[in-house]
Description:
Residues 209-246 are annotated as: Disordered. Keywords: Developmental protein, DNA-binding, Nucleus, Transcription, Transcription regulation. One of its GO terms (molecular function) is DNA-binding transcription factor activity, RNA polymerase II-specific. The protein has a domain at 14-180: Sandwich (Immunoglobulin-like), CATH 2.60.40.820. Helices cover 23% and strands 26% of the residues. It has seven helices and 17 strands. It has helices at residues 14-17, 25-33, 109-113, 182-191, 193-212, 225-238, 266-270; strands spanning 19-22, 37-39, 45-46, 52-56, 63-72, 78-81, 84-87, 99-101, 107-108, 117-118, 123-125, 135-137, 143-154, 159-167, 173-176, 280-282, 288-290. Strands 2, 5, 8, 9, 13, 14 and 15 form a seven-stranded mixed beta sheet that branches. A three-stranded antiparallel beta sheet has the order 1-4-10. Strands 3-11-12 form a three-stranded mixed beta sheet, with no helix packed on it. The longest helix is centred in the C-terminal third of the chain and has 20 residues, at 193-212. 18% of the residues are buried. Residues 211-222 and 247-284 have low confidence and may be disordered.
Amino acid sequence: MSPLDIKIEDAPSEADQIEVKLEEEPLWNKFSNLTNEMIVTKNGRRMFPVMKVRTKGLDENAMYTVLLDFTAADNHRWKYVNGEWVPGGKPEPQVPSSVYMHPDSPNFGSHWMKQPLSFSKVKLTNKLNQHNGQQIMLHSLHKYEPRVHIIKIGGTAGAQEFVKTQPFPMTRFIAVTAYQNEEITSLKIRHNPFAKAFLDAEQRKQNDLPISTSANYSNSNGRSAAQNNRRKRAENRTQPYKRPVPVAKSEPISSIDFGAQHMMPSFVQSMGIPIQAPVRTFSPDGSSAVL
């Protein structure tokens, strides 16, 4: 039963005039061909691709509420074996249906038809939480099919009239706590701008590792970092006045330890931002200079 206690009856003739069409069908089709997967977590995880639909045929001056729910697509529990999904037993008992109300609800038909409706804020969870209207509880390793419902509000005492339910078979997915199919993972990274940014950051971090962390890194003269350090220590012992004296701590320049740039986060280094600190040097005659 819906939280709104809506009685779903045979759709009236108005339903024949209303169209609810899925946006980004080519993208959904790519995932559907591989058997799509959606992550569920305790705190909830947003969907990708995002459910977006476009509506037509609504009464511009009437008020409507738009809902999203997820119905069981079959009577199986699934498992991933040898690179494919296969039925793996009986399903878990279904919990009472969770329904997500679009945050713009209720609103005029003209509002719903002027642009695609996005359900970007809905989160999928594997924990029943009655106090969070943004979360939908699903069982892991079960297949689901999203549906959009349109409810017309009006008439006597603001009666609610069910006018349209639109299922989307192309958007079916298996709920998982971690992606099983590597092709699905790659496809999500390729098309999800947030995941792509994460991947780019990881690649930049990996590209920095050979330079910033390798103890055996050699310079143009063929000397390793360890050899260079020993050479510098020997020079400092024989030529003490070439060694810069540290700036007193009573005159801090910044809260950042500029002398340890190798400890800076890799994403700061990757931006190519020069980080310099003035160094005070002393000569044998007692004079000093800031470089």
